[in-house]
Amino acid sequence: MLAGGLAAIVGACGGDGAPGAPGQDGAPGEDGAPGKDGQDGADGEPGDDGAPGKDGADGQDGAPGQDGQPGPKGDPGQDAPPQTSAASLADYVKERVEMFAAGALPAGEQFPLHAAATDTIRTLAGVRSDVVVSWLDPLTFSAAPDAPRFGANNDYIAYFGEGWDAVEGNAPQWNGSGSAGWLWVNHEYVSGKGPTPTSAPTGQHLTLARHLKQIGVLTNDVEASVWSQADVDTHIRWEKKQVGGSWLRAVQDPSTGAWSVDRSATAVRYDATSATRSRVVGQALLGPGKDDATGEALPEGIVAGIMGDCAGGQTPWGTVISAEENVQDFFGDLEASWSSDQAFLPGRGFDPGANVSPVVEASTSTSAAFGRISDERGRQPRDHYGYLVEIDPGQPAGEFEGATTAGTGHMKLGFMGRARWEAATFAVDGDWKLLPDQPIVVYGSDDRRGGRIYKYVTAGKYTAGMTRAQVRALLGTGKLYAAHFAGLDNATGNTLVATGAAPTEAAPGEGRWIELSVSSAAVAPNAAALGAATMTVGEALRDVRWNGIGGFASDDDVRRALFTASNKVGIMELNRPEDIEWNPRDPSGTPRIYVTFTNHTRKVALDQSGVLFAPQDHATLSPRRDDAVGSIFALEEADPAAPGASATFRYFEVWHGAQGKGDFDAACPDNLLLDRDGGVWFGTDGNFGTNPHADAFYYLDLDPAHREGEPGVVAPSFGKAFRVAAMPSDAEATGPQFTPDMATIFMAVQHPGEDVYSRWPGGEGALSSVIAITFLPE
């Protein structure tokens, strides 16, 4: 088209002649170059799907690929709430033990709680834990510096359910509300080292110093290594306020089950200052106490403060026994004649050849915790402490027994003597009431290496319907006995000489109660060995040379130094007896006394026959006991229905500690707890350093139906300890106490972080606390 058109144009450009006839079309030209593509057209409507094709043949499997890198671990999931028909924590644990014995635990359920060491509270699935109150927490809504605050290193706990005394004659045990009540809590000591003019405080003492600066009591640099003596004195005065005991009301949230302090209730603090006062009953004191604010002498028999309060007991008439243990740390040791290896130390007031004359003045103890104060008013005599103290809870701290009303107020049980008391318990019937028409019988345990178990029997008898004042009036007159574990191997403290094995229920040891008095007619256990087979205890105690120890002129002297008096007459030494409990509803069907022997890895004072190792021979002749794990023993009185009249008892081991990391490995038993049905529970102190995994709280299965060979028993559980709750860090598990419905156990978490790292419970520093462990049924 384009070539033919161009020729026609050229032909038309001639002269202007007349137009010629049109020429013929030229030959067609060659095609031009292709033009550019035009715009795409719009998509057409989609066509119909074609028929599906046939499946192809399966291909061969490829080679397996390499494993990829592991991903990060997720948080462990919580166990699902267990299926249970139990209505209480105690019943739930026992139900699980029953299933364990029958080999019927649900697959994957963790029971008992596994061994581990964490900085948390760990419990079984279906159980919650709450921090109820911690050291330095206010017990009221007052912000005043001297308002009552919760004390340090809590130990023994007693629970009084709201309304427990609504029925006349009720015992506080297992009566009253399970969701609201009053707690008594012991406060034993402050950990770490207090400040000196040339050193800063450490541990809990530093925590206390920081608190005192925060509230304006101290104004110095509390972390500096230089302190004025005036600031040191201030710190010691406030340290005295951290020990003793607390009385507070706790309530449970009905929607969540959580427990907390009712700060609107009238809380009371009892401490080591002269603001707390008690009467010493049944024991003469060697000098008066002082008001530590004025320096004035206190009335005769009245002492200032309580201290070193470890475990204790709940009386059947509604008061609390708080046991003063290591009081030698505060004003010095009255029985200073014994080394840590139980070697006799001459020149300390107990030498043979004269009557004993121990040092009682606290003014000589300028290195002891409270003796370091420069203000003489702050020091008290040593023989004022080391007693079982009966606190009338809720009464003002200064209300000593008889101050205003007979039978009301606080008193120290001087008739039981001085010792490093751990705990006390009473012989009671199945309703936890005193035995009618029987004397009141009190048992106590002296927690030291070689310490003993003691029994006190009142002269008068209890009769039903007595008032509290009448009951307390009976206590001042009676007889004191020491438990002599005859036949126990002195080299071990937990096996029998005759068998070389631990005593068992089938082959028990036979012990006897030895009256400790200068008028006692009992034959001294070491009489024959010392060449006078008929020497009585009374004669031996008065003799100024018997067994290489000075004489005891009176029963006051005997009670003032129980450990030394017991050594003098040859009472068998024990492996640190700690808690002690009378069990009126024992699974065996017979009332028993349970005692924890925590451990003993040092030498002893006496040989097998009760003769004192001479000071020059002690290092080479005294055996070193090798009990690092401890045990629990049971004692049965010859007549459990009349324990005050029983002169003998059977004893045997029911549980022995173990070293290891298994589910049933535990060591160093300490506090005991009996449930409403006679079940036995215990906490440990020292397991963390022995095994190591956290100290914990256990249920001890003593149900005879769970022995090997009994019908339906696949996994024998008799004698096994089942871990229920584990403590944080290196904290001790102390003070367990059930509510009356057994749905909650209150426990004291003592000294977390004392020797190793801990930030429990709040992340700002380790604080001893009371926790509530509560069962939450679906």
Structure characterization notes:
The chain is an alpha+beta fold. It has one domain (89-190, 242-775). It contains eleven helices and 29 strands. The protein has helices at residues 2-11, 89-101, 204-214, 229-240, 328-331, 468-474, 537-542, 555-560, 562-569, 618-621, 687-690; strands at 122-123, 127-134, 154-161, 180-187, 244-252, 259-261, 268-270, 277-281, 302-304, 309-314, 320-324, 388-391, 411-413, 421-426, 438-446, 453-462, 478-484, 509-515, 577-583, 592-597, 631-637, 648-656, 669-674, 680-684, 696-700, 721-726, 732-738, 744-750, 769-775. The chain is globular. The model is unreliable at 1-78 (pLDDT under 50). Residues 11-86 are annotated as: Disordered.
Strand elements, count: 29
Q: List segments where confidence is low: pLDDT < 50 over at least 5 consecutive residues.
A: 1-78
Q: Give the strand line-up of the largest sheet.
A: 14-15-16-17-18-22-21-20-19
Measured as a percent range, the helix fraction is 10-25%
Report how far apart the termini are.
Answer: 98 Å
What number of structural domains do the residues give? 1
Largest sheet: 9 strands, antiparallel
